[in-house]
Structures are given as C-alpha cells and as structure tokens.
Amino acid sequence: MNKEFLDKKQLVDHRIEIAMESASFKDSPLYPAINYAVTAPGKRIRGVLTLAFCKRLSVPLEEAIPFAVALELIHAYSLVHDDLPEMDNDDYRRGLPTCHKKFGNAMALLAGDAILNYSIEYILKNRKLYQPNRLLNAIDVLYSSSGAEGMLGGQAIDKIGETRLLSLDELLELHNKKTGALLLAPILIASALADEKNENYVNYSKHIGLAFQIKDDILDVEGSSEKLGKKIGKDAEENKSTFVSIMGLDSAKNYLRNELLLAEKEAENDPFLVWLVQYIGGRDH
Asked: What are the Cα distances from residue 244, in Å, to 19, 163, 175, 217?
C-alpha cells in the first residue's frame, strides 16, 4: 500500500472520528445509526484525493480537511440510501450488516438525511479558515457533484436501467455522474480553494472515476463475495445495465485497461497518482 495513501487515509479516518465525537446531536436517537454508517471501514479514496490534490495545489491542510471529511460523509449517506430495499436492497456492506438491516428502514433513511445535512454543517463550523469566495466556490462544486446534476442524477438513470437496457452513451452518463462525480469532486474542490485549475488532474479524475465503476461491474461478475463484503451477481439478478451486460466481460476489461492507461498518462509520473491508477485496476474489493 502506498505510504501517502495510508498517511492521508489515517488522517481522514481520525478526523471523521473527531467529527462524530464532537457532533452536537450525540443525544439524538439517530446518532447510533449515523455513527455506524459514517465510521464503517472504507477505502476513503475521495477524502484522500481531496487532501492529495489540495497539497499539490498548495491549499493548506487545515483548509482541505473539512472538505475531505464532508465528501466522505456524503459518500457514506449515499451508501446508506443505496442499500435500502427501494434501491439496491443489499444486506451487507463491507462485510457488515447494512444500516437498514441493523437499525430498520426508517432510521436508515433518516440517518442518511442527517449525514448529508451534517456534511454542510461541518464545513460551515470551520468557515473562518477560508476566504469567503473560495469557500463558497468549493461548496458549490461539492454539492453540485452530489446533487441531481451529479451523483443523484446518475442514480436515477441507474434505476431506469433496471427497466430497459441502456445504450453505451446512457451508461457512460450514468457512471460519470453516479460514481465519477464524487471522484471528480476532489480536484474541483482543490481548484476552488486554490483558485487555480489543472486540466491534467481534472482529466485524470474523470478517467479513474470511470475505471472505478467498470472495475465494480467486473467484480460483480467474477469477484469474491468474501473479499467484496457483499453478494456478487446482483447486477444480473436485478437486470441492471452495466459495462459487462452491454458490451460483454472481455470488452469491459479492454475498456477498463484503456481508461487506466489514459489516467496514468494524465498523472504525469506523479508516484501517488500512478499508484492509485494501478490500485484501482488491480483491486479485488
């Protein structure tokens, strides 16, 4: 495992724990479900990338951390809702019972809402760290990425894809929003906070976002339930449109390799960014 990744992951995990320990709603009946969902083991790729890109664009660490935490909170809430019976109906997430299986559907729904709400509360509690315009621009790109133009819009297309086979263009739109938007958000946040753009990093993020989802589709066919921490084969059971169902397993693997090569080219020999490309392509969970 890459040292920069491990160091930043440990920092994100630590700050998430502090964010939960210092939350003003610890006496709420929702707190156990919220804490369960937020502190569950995870890769923290989105938070780590936020810190990594902020570092590369010279954004101070203390300015980067609240957005890294907020992005991981948004990701956590999305998983809680995604696991519900009305969505993907999963019993396990990362080898643990999903939030609704442990706390009930209604509490999971409310906990997801509360986690999303806390993400903006957490940023605003730290607003004195920022120049106002840069703060507002970073908030803008974060919540655009997670809203109807981004992640939620992609999830809506995903549901449509259960009723009919999507075209490749529709599938690309789906995953550029559903998965890709929150993996593009770190560089957009860093750019807003630094008031500086880097097109290589933007292109890199787009390619790893798509590669991440293609790999997920492949793992659902030939992965291990034990390693993934959830049941495999659910995409086919639910008639989901995936890269595998649309183009076949071999073509999906070729598409993945191409996206990884394009991402590595945009990384411009940055050791961490190159390693992350290889990690995404080789992961088994």
From this structure: 39, 17, 13, 6
